[in-house]
């Protein structure tokens, strides 16, 4: 299964990272205060806030672009009205790099989210040291104890968390954390099946005081209106923006 292979790669990366733990902890501790993702996503209550994603390649779609300049892309997203930027840092399946996140952070004023497959607190230290303001935690790839420990580690680093779920039982597990932001991924990360209406089905399991983010497969202004009607405050959009759909500009008009 895809998730097993990605998790195997993550665990190898974490092992290699251990030698740098002390240095990363020092750098993370010296970072400036975070730009709040929760605040950015709550700033325009009448419309859906967009977390615009920088990703060059995806397991489901292959290469999305051959000319990939995450810095320029993020600047364009900011100009077009994005509320936050997500940067893929996973190298093997998404051609991501932590250097992309550093470059993006230096070139926009928006909160920057590390989009990776986080299984160890050291990845959160690494994210903070690179300048991330927030990180994704995918409930499906960790157990309850690991999830709790990762959430606490993020809080200690002043990193905000987007807690990602893909089933009612994962929602139940996520809610034990009392999270501020929950993302419903419309994509099944093993089969890659993507269905926007999944967000509609899941909306009722997320309490009203939690910021709801609909993730994946969002292509049009109509999709944004739909998720707003279902009670979502934000959308995470990758492929359609990277491919130049103009969705952000279209939504501003
Ligand atoms: O994007 C994929 O193909 C993918 C496959 C397996 C695990 C994760 C994957 N993507 C991560 C994401 O959640 C998306 O990059 C993000 O939600 C944006 O989705 P999209 O707008 O459909 O590019």
TrEMBL record:
A Pfam family reported for this protein in Swiss-Prot or TrEMBL: IGPS
SUPFAM superfamilies: Ribulose-phoshate binding barrel
EC class (word): lyase
Cross-referenced CDD domains: IGPS (cd00331)
Superkingdom of source: Bacteria
UniProt keyword annotation of Amino-acid biosynthesis present: yes
Pathway: Amino-acid biosynthesis; L-tryptophan biosynthesis; L-tryptophan from chorismate: step 4/5
Keywords tagged on the record: Amino-acid biosynthesis, Aromatic amino acid biosynthesis, Decarboxylase, Lyase, Tryptophan biosynthesis
Catalytic activity: 1-(2-carboxyphenylamino)-1-deoxy-D-ribulose 5-phosphate + H(+) = (1S,2R)-1-C-(indol-3-yl)glycerol 3-phosphate + CO2 + H2O
Residue span, Indole-3-glycerol phosphate synthase domain: 3-244
Family classification: Belongs to the TrpC family.
Name of the protein: Indole-3-glycerol phosphate synthase
């Amino acid at each position: 299964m895809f998730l097993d292979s990605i998790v195997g790669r993550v665990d190898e990366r974490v092992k290699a990272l251990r030698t740098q733990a002390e240095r990363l902890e020092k750098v993370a501790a010296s970072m400036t205060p975070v730009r709040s993702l929760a605040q950015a996503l709550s700033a325009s209550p009448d419309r859906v806030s967009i977390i615009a994603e920088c990703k060059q390649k995806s397991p489901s779609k292959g290469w999305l672009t051959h000319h990939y300049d995450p810095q320029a892309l993020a600047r364009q997203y900011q100009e077009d009205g994005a509320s936050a930027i997500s940067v893929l840092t996973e190298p093997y399946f998404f051609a991501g790099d932590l250097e992309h996140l550093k470059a993006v952070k230096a070139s926009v004023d928006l909160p920057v989210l590390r989009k990776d497959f986080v299984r160890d607190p050291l990845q959160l230290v690494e994210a903070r040291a690179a300048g991330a303001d927030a990180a994704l935690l995918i409930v499906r790839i960790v157990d309850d104890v690991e999830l709790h420990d990762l959430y606490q580690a993020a809080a200690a680093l002043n990193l905000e968390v987007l807690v990602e779920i893909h089933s009612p039982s994962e929602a139940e597990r996520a809610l034990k954390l009392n999270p501020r932001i929950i993302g419903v991924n419309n994509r099944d990360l093993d089969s890659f099946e993507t269905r926007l209406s999944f967000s509609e089905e899941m909306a009722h399991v997320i309490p009203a005081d939690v910021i709801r983010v609909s993730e994946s497969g969002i292509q049009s202004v109509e999709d944004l209106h739909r998720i707003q009607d279902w009670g979502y405050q934000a959308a995470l959009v990758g492929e359609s923006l990277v491919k130049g759909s103009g969705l952000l500009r279209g939504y501003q008009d």
